[in-house]
Specification:
binds adenosine-5'-triphosphate, Trk_Ktr_HKT_K-transport, Rossmann fold, about 35% helix, single chain, alpha/beta
Length: about 230
């Protein structure tokens, strides 16, 4: 997760109980079904009447309407502009997705999340004012590649494209050594933030602390240096 994402998520009011989802493709349906399961009110719209009635039949939405979201008048009449958070879940129709996002921002919707289906689409959505853009194909693909190539990394927080905070399994090479002995800063350019044992974290551990196989450590540094860590 990036810092910009975190600040966006923080800005979404915790009291918000209602969401509007535009587009009932696979992505939109998944968003609706999950929000509903979590107990939130969901108003969904789609230009396709069949998608609207299927969503109502499957009860993945509280309300659903058939409308063309490129039409500001239709959105206004449906009350979409009154929502705090709107998810534009139109990935494959770039023009419709851009116009819909623009409609939301021009009407003053505070939090607009939009789904991109390509890099250009991603850039355009940011340009027209989307507050948060997701690009599932890219994000899931990247996460899979990282998991396959760096299985020792348990969790990561991307500070920016080059620097991260990662939780990783203590490498075998570090087993039984103290923090001073592993020379993380000198050898790898990384700083140790915490060590964990039995799910309990010890922040800023003592330099004499001995690392153990099977436990975890949290480091901060640049991605290139993190990838040089022994596995
Ligand atoms: P997929 O379902 O293939 O994974 P997706 O979730 O990104 O992809 P899309 O194919 O982009 O979904 O379609 C999302 C939905 O948006 C479709 O059901 C489509 O009918 C709807 N849609 C397209 N244009 C409009 C529009 N102008 N107004 C409202 N809904 C629209």
């Amino acid at each position: 997760m990036k810092l910009a994402t975190l600040s966006f998520l923080r800005s979404v009011s915790k009291d918000n109980q209602q969401f509007a989802v535009i587009g009932l493709g696979r992505f939109g349906r998944s968003v609706c079904a999950t929000l509903r399961k979590l107990g939130y009110q969901v108003l969904a719209t789609d230009i396709d009447a069949k998608q609207v009635s299927a969503a109502l039949t499957k009860e993945i939405v509280s309300h659903a309407l058939q409308l063309d979201s490129t039409e500001p008048a239709a959105l206004k009449e449906a009350g979409i502009f009154g929502f705090d958070t709107v998810i534009v879940a139109i990935g494959n129709y770039v023009q419709e997705s851009i116009i819909t996002t623009l409609n939301m921002k021009e009407a003053g919707v505070p939090h607009v999340v939009a789904k991109a289906s390509s890099e250009v689409h991603y850039k355009l959505l940011n340009r027209v004012g989307a507050d948060h853009v997701v690009f599932p194909e890219y994000e899931v693909g990247r996460a899979l590649a990282l998991t396959l190539t760096q299985p020792f990394i348990l969790d990561r927080f991307d500070l920016d494209p080059d620097n991260s905070i990662v939780e990783l399994v203590v490498p075998d090479e570090f087993h039984g050594k103290t923090i001073t002995e592993i020379q993380l800063r000198n050898r790898y350019g990384l700083n140790l933030l915490a060590v964990s044992k039995d799910s309990e974290f010890q922040i800023n551990p003592n330099p004499t602390y001995r690392l153990e196989r099977g436990s975890a450590m949290v480091v901060i540094g640049c991605n290139k240096d993190i990838s040089r860590m022994p596995i």
